[in-house]
Every structure is written in C-alpha cells, then in structure tokens.
Design a protein that fits this description.
Radius of gyration: 21 Å
Structural class: mainly alpha
Oligomer: single chain
Bound molecules: 4-fluoro-L-phenylalanine
Strand order of the largest sheet: 1-2
Number of helices: 18
Length: about 450
C-alpha cells in the first residue's frame, strides 16, 4: 500500500538534511587531497568558479524539478512534460546512487573501524610506515572490511527506517551543527601548531603552474561530487521540501556551507601536514595514514583522533542516507511500495554492491573492470560518468525543455519574491555553460582534448 508523503517538518530541517547530504567524505577526505595534488590555491579558485557557474544552477534545476511536483525524477518528468524521454534518466540516477553508495559505504566502514581503534588507543605510538601497514592490513582483510561495511550499512538503514522527519531530519539537525563546532575546534588547533602558516600558504597562494587541464577537470568533478549533483539526490530531497522554502536562498546556503566545510577541512589538514614535515600530495591515504601520525604528536591525541573520525562518520552517514533515499523514494513513488519494503529492497541491492567493493582489495582483487578493481571502477564511474551525465541531463531539461513558467514559479514561490537576476543567471548557466563544460569533461576523459 502506498503511504502518505510526509515532508521535512521545517525549512531548517530541509536545509540541514541537504547540507548533510552535500558534506561528506567528498569534503573532508577528497577535497583536501585533490587540492594538495593540483596546486592548492589555483585549484580552489577554479573549484569556486565551478560551484558558482555549474553547481549552484544545477542544484537549482534539481530543486525546481523536485519541489514543483513533490515526486521522484521519473514521476516529476512525467507530470511536468508528459511522454518526455527524459524520465528514463531517473533509472540512471537510481543505478548511480546504488553503485556510489555501495563503494562509499566501504570507506565509511574504514572510518568506523578507525573510530573504534583510535578509541582503544591502537592508533598511537607508530611510525608513519606502520600507519601505512595498519591501513593496508585493514583494507586487505576481507572479513574485517566486510564486517565494518555491514555495520555501517545497518546503522544507515536503521536511521532511514525512522522516516524523513524522525530519522533523516532529526539526525541532520543534531549532527550538522556538531560537525561545524568540531571542525572549528580542529582548525584552531591546527592553526596554533608551529609552522602552520606554511600550510595556509600552500592552500591559498594561487599558482596556476600546478593546475593544468587535469586540475580543472578534477575541480569540476569534485563540485558535482561535493554538492551531491546528478544522481537525482536533490530532486528526491526537494520533493520533500515545503512550498514555502525559498529555493535560491536555500541553494546558496547549502553550497556555501558545503564549500566552507571543504575549506575548513583544508585548514585542519595542511597546517598540520606542514607542521610535522609531511607531504601534502599523499593522495587518498592522507586521512587514514597521515592523520594518526599527526594526532599522536598532539597532547590528548586519543581524544582528537576519536573526535576526528566520529566527525567523519557523521559527515558520511548523512551522505549515504541521502544516497539511499533515492531508490527508496523511487520505489515508493513508482511501485507504490511501503517505506519498509522499499528500504528492504534498497538495503539488499546496496549490500551486494558494498560487499563486492569491500572485497576488491582482497578476495576479489583479481576482478578487473576497465583496468581497475571493483572499488576503483565504481569510484571512477560514479562521479565521472553517472553524476556528470545526470548533471548534463537536468541542466538541458530545465534549461531547454521545461516550461519557463514552472521555473519562474519555483524561483519566486508563485510570485512572492523577485527573480529578476536569478532567473536569467540560472537559465543562462543551464543552457550554455553547464552543457559545454560537461561535454568538455567527457571529451577530456576520452582523450579528445
Ligand atoms: N556529497 C557527498 C560528499 O561530498 O561526500 C557525496 C554524495 C552524496 C554524492 C549524495 C551524491 C549524492 F547523491
């Protein structure tokens, strides 16, 4: 039986949940290491431009589709433009969400294990090489890796089972402010370390030599990943928004907070890296291998380590919740399933992907797709194919095919606010800038530019 659709209870709750979706491993783990590999300040400058010219308009296009219909993408497109082939992309979004959440949960499992291990003091008293071994042994141990991934997924689905208000909204309302407070404490701590200014110089001095085309493309992909775009996540969330939410203000708030968290994460990590004489471009290992080294040299290291990984856990679970909600809402809307059944089906599918990904460094390391193991393959196609394709589709759909009256009504809440500047800005970016930029990324990937 289908259930009555219950939305977010408050505007703040809706914003907190969306910020929760946006802020995740992408900000705290991926953004700093990408900035580290792509020249620091120049990368950040390009990233900010991407947020302004691609991220914000595409976020608005997802909000317009979701909030105008209070449906998932398939139902929304069917209602807004009957018989339009664009509704097919709802399936692409659902598939993308299942695949991305599958491998993302594996990293969340590592984070959970690091919370527990650091609490037990196991991450103290080692050399950087030993931290590297500790990380590799976790990743390479099939049972441990699968177990932590499953524990994480179980927590994820318990919260989802409580529903939009009592589960997602309530959790985001508590976790998001806590996350900001913890991050600011860490920033202050990092800034007080000797030589911290070197880290800040690295992060904010603009040198385009270290950037190149790869850096520009990375910054675009990172903006999509970080703002949760392209897999219909924000269509799904905004379908639960109230008609009073001011979409443009909400989108600006969400993208600004998301960007702020990414930059704060950089301010936490780089001054510490430089202060302890380590390499800024260590890549994805940065957090799991280098941070324990940093924590153990700080007074009260155990507490800092636990707090940091708890923070990362908060950030990641609010993101996996939003990814899981995509198939759940789709199944409820399109197949009239109860929330419980939709959660069960989603949980089974996601668990399969997650277990396969968790095993890709051990038992299944011989399974290679397009030159990558399962985890790396999903990490590549998730952001670089599903998110970009979805972003392109929503931009073209809202920019070129959707009735401009719907766009205007959503931007102005039926004429209550002015959209004199925002309407042309969004339409211009959706029609021209986003399609050209995304097509260029695709051409770059296939080696044409
Ligand atoms: N934005 C999240 C992060 O930065 O970690 C990841 C994410 C969440 C991507 C939800 C896509 C999505 F639909």
């Amino acid at each position: 039986m289908s259930e009555k659709r219950i939305g977010f209870a408050t505007r703040l709750g809706a914003i907190a949940a969306s910020v929760g979706s946006a802020v995740g491993l992408g900000n705290i783990w991926r953004f700093p290491y990408q900035a580290g590999q792509n020249g620091g300040g120049a990368y950040i400058l390009v990233y900010l431009l991407c947020v302004l010219l691609l991220g914000l308009p595409i976020m608005m296009s997802e909000f317009i589709i979701g909030r105008s219909t209070h449906k998932n993408m398939r139902g929304a497109v069917e209602q807004l433009t009957p018989k339009s082939p664009f509704k097919v992309f709802a399936y692409v979004g659902v598939l993308g969400a299942l695949l991305i959440c599958g491998y993302y949960s594996v990293v969340c499992g590592w984070v959970l294990e690091y919370v527990v291990d650091s609490g037990e003091g196991l991450l103290l008293g080692h050399t950087p090489e030993q931290y590297s071994e500790i990380f590799n042994s976790l990743v390479g141990a099939p049972q441990r890796c699968v177990l932590w991934t499953l524990i994480f997924l179980a927590l994820n689905f318990v919260i989802l089972n409580k529903g939009i208000n009592k589960g997602i909204e309530r959790m985001a309302n508590v976790m998001m402010p806590l996350l900001f407070v913890l991050l600011i404490v860490f920033c202050v701590n990092s800034l007080m370390l000797p030589n911290s200014s070197k880290g800040l110089d690295f992060l904010f001095s603009i040198d385009f030599n270290g950037l190149g085309w790869k850096g520009v493309v990375d910054a675009m992909g990172q903006a999509f990943m970080s703002l949760s775009l392209g897999v219909t996540c924000l269509i799904t969330y905004s379908s639960y928004f109230s008609d009073d939410n001011h979409l443009m203000k909400d989108a600006v708030t969400i993208s600004s907070l998301d960007t702020l968290v990414a930059i704060l994460a950089g301010i936490v990590i780089f001054p510490a890296v430089f202060s302890f004489g380590m390499e800024p471009n260590a890549g994805p290992k940065l957090i799991f291998e280098i941070l324990p080294t940093i924590f153990q040299q700080m007074p009260g290291g155990v507490v800092w380590a636990v707090l940091f990984f708890v923070l990362l856990f908060f950030a990641s679970i609010t993101s996996t919740i939003s990814l899981s909600e995509i198939p759940i809402t789709f199944l409820i809307d399109e197949y009239k399933l109860s929330r419980g059944k939709a959660i069960a089906i989603t949980a089974v599918l996601m668990t399969v992907v997650a277990v396969l990904s968790a095993l890709s460094f051990s038992t299944l390391s011989d399974v290679i797709i397009a030159g990558r193991n399962i985890f790396d393959f999903l990490d590549f196609v998730g952001p670089n194919f599903f998110m970009l394709l979805g972003g392109l589709v929503t931009a073209v759909y809202v920019g070129w095919f959707l009735d401009k009256k719907v766009v205007h009504d959503q931007l102005t809440n039926g004429g209550k606010h002015s959209a004199r500047f925002t309407h042309p800005y969004i339409i211009f970016c959706l029609r021209f800038i986003a399609p050209v930029a995304i097509i260029m990324i695709f051409l770059y990937y296939v080696g044409i530019i």
